[in-house]
Fold this sequence. Notes:
This protein has 179 residues and is mainly beta. It has a domain at 33-49 and 61-156 and 173-178: Exo-inulinase, domain 1 (Jelly Rolls, Sandwich), CATH 2.60.120. It contains no helices and 14 strands. The strands form 2 sheets. It has a 7-stranded antiparallel sheet with strand order 1-4-13-6-7-8-9, with no helix packed on it. Strands 2-3-14-5-10-11-12 form a 7-stranded antiparallel sheet, with no helix packed on it. A hairpin with a 2-residue loop joins strand 10 and strand 11 (129-134). It is globular, with a radius of gyration of 15 Å. The relative contact order is 0.29.
Amino acid sequence: MFNGTDLTGWEPVGVEKWTVEDGAIHGVGISKAYGYLQTTKEYKDFWMSLRFKFAGNGNSGLFCHTRFKPGTVDVSQGMQFEMDRTENHHTGGLYGDGRGWIAWPSPEYEYVLRPTDWNDMLVKVEGNHFVCILNGIKILDYTDPSPKSFDGTIALQLHAGGGGNMWFKDLHIRDLSQR
């Protein structure tokens, strides 16, 4: 999904800066707007693993089944697995589809995140079933009773406000639609 040398298969949405350094994707907020790096391919059902690290205080996320309105960074659909280094800000929780927060990890899982080191995330998206495993611990297993999105691109996010500074590496996907 990411070859470790360039952004082949990915496209930026917005003006934020996305580069490849030392085999990792580095996203830096340079404006007060949201920024995304989305796949050029669409996915429906999949397992995806990645490593992420916070270099700044802004939050981030992994979007799936997303679509952006042409010429804007406004998401018209999609679900986000939250990434936030601040305690009790629900890393691994689901947000999106125009509904706001959909599901949070239980409070005991709020401290699985390593706020200053690399984190390993494995997500499963299959139909209306969403699973998030963070640093080897299943922190979310949720079946959405009213999903709005079933396919679309995958995107990495830098949150609005200009504080985004994130690293992503070792991005791999197993497309379950290809079974």
